[in-house]
Amino acid sequence: MNRFVSCSLFALALAAGSANAALVTVTGAHNAGPMGSTGPLAIGGSGAMDFNSGSGNNFVSGTVEFTNNTSQTTQSLTLRLTNFTFSSDAAGPVTVSVNLVQDFAVSGDALLTARASHQFQGNTSFVSAAQSARVTKVSTHESTALPNLDTGVKTGVGAINFDASHGQFVEVGTDLVYRMNTTYTFLLNGAGGVAQVIIANTAIDNANLVLVPLPPAAFAGIGGLAVVGIAGRIRRRKMNAQA
């Protein structure tokens, strides 16, 4: 096998990624992880992992789901927090943060920009007007920070709905690996009773990339471009880690 073909296959194999789970870390009143792996998640890959910490009325639990799908014209990347509950009966405020990091393998047909967005929607479970909650979310896609999401302080009795989103997609530069790094922070004051924050389904980061298939003559350069892209990404990651 000649050297060009060897380099091409090596680079394309790396770009394909693997079916690794997201890296999940829970800190604050409860701690779990880090667990899982950043990946990259292969094209066509998907999966889920559960986390939980605590017991009785004082616990946090949830599921992290991740997908990397393609159609004829689009590659869609998603990182979702679902089946989430944070519960406390403490006399004062307590905080839990959930950090999710996932790398996604990017198709060689993708344009080197993406449209990114993030959102969440959920509700509280309060038994007295003295109880309160606040949810914030900070997300970075590649090196671009998406606008922060913040519910503000929620009070009341029963199920108080909350939601926040950034509907204007953000253009993000990308290469062979696309990284999402998102942190949810939950502040909950049970005021001596049982209070909960619940996100049953909708808490998500997503990105869509346009796919433009290359003409046959262009495939000769894919291997070299892949090697350059991967080398640049590894170098940047090392520099960021040392900063």
How would you explain this protein's 3D organization?
- By secondary structure, the chain is mainly beta.
- The protein has one domain.
- It contains 2 helices and 15 strands.
- Strands 1, 2, 6, 8, 9, 10, 11 and 13 form an 8-stranded antiparallel β-sheet that branches. Strands 3, 4, 5, 7, 12, 14 and 15 form a 7-stranded antiparallel β-sheet that branches.
- The longest helix is centred in the last third of the chain and has 21 residues, at 222-242.
- The chain starts with a helix and ends with a helix.
- Mean pLDDT is 83; it is low at 1-18 and 217-228.
Can you describe this structure in just a few lines?
This protein is mainly beta and 243 residues long. Helix content is 14%, strand content 53%.
